[in-house]
User: What shape does this take?
Amino acid sequence: MYSIIDIESNGAGFRKESIIEIAIYKYDGHEIVDQFISLINPENEITHFVQKLTKISPKMVKTAPKFQEIAKRVVEM
Assistant: This one.
């Protein structure tokens, strides 16, 4: 059993970077047995480059949970 994790970040500089989206898929070797996908409010700006690359806008993450609100679920996965 293992998990595959994909994250997108806001593209900010060193120590200012924040996660804006996370996807976790738990795989048992044959099929996906659990998954968790969420936008995350970075509480910081998203660079124009990242907005263009990911199609994630500040408006989309404005009401999304902050990372500390989903951290327990991430650790459980």
Summary: The chain has three helices and three strands. The first helix runs from residue 48 to 54. The mean pLDDT is 95. The first strand starts at residue 2 and ends at 9.
